[in-house]
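We modelled the chain as a single entity of 194 amino acids. Its sequence is:
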Amino acid sequence: FAGAFNERLLDRAAAERKADQQLVVIGRRGAALAEERGLEIAGNFPMATHIGGVLGVTRSVAERLAAFSAADIVFGSYRQGGNFEPAIRRILPLDPALLAGAGHQDPPLHHLAPAMLLERLASEYLFGEITRAVMESLASENGARLRVMESADHNIGDKLDALQRTERSVRQEDITSELLDVVTGAAVILTDMG
């Protein structure tokens, strides 16, 4: 009931995918669609059906991506009114520009070696980016589902109105026919009497 949500995301992923990149899909429908299109899937994770399930999905995906040196994520970027746009974001390797804006600041208070601190911060950043993408996709999918359901409701309302108009018209024709039968019958009786 989500309209072309999965199709649009998969179209974007297929258009951006390079020959050496593996495809990992979140969600059963997206995975089934990828298989129908003959795309090889390197991994599949169930999509969260509510907000409480997002962190579990994120953890699973982050664990899988930890083995990769490069990764892009394609997701439904939520737009106002239940709309979305397929978006792509590079999440690995980390963009050096993330550190460029730091400038000269006091070093953070920590008890970790700099390499370990950077690794953990990078891991948290990756987790945050995946969480953001999963949350936006969940909101986008639910928005798309809502739009499809509203459209179906509108179509049902239109069909119901048309059927009610037809019913009134048929009923009016029946009443008119019965009245004509009564009038004709009365005229015949009056003619026979007179």
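As a brief sanity check on the tokenised model: Residues 75 and 133 are 6 Å apart (CA to CA). The longest helix spans residues 114-193.
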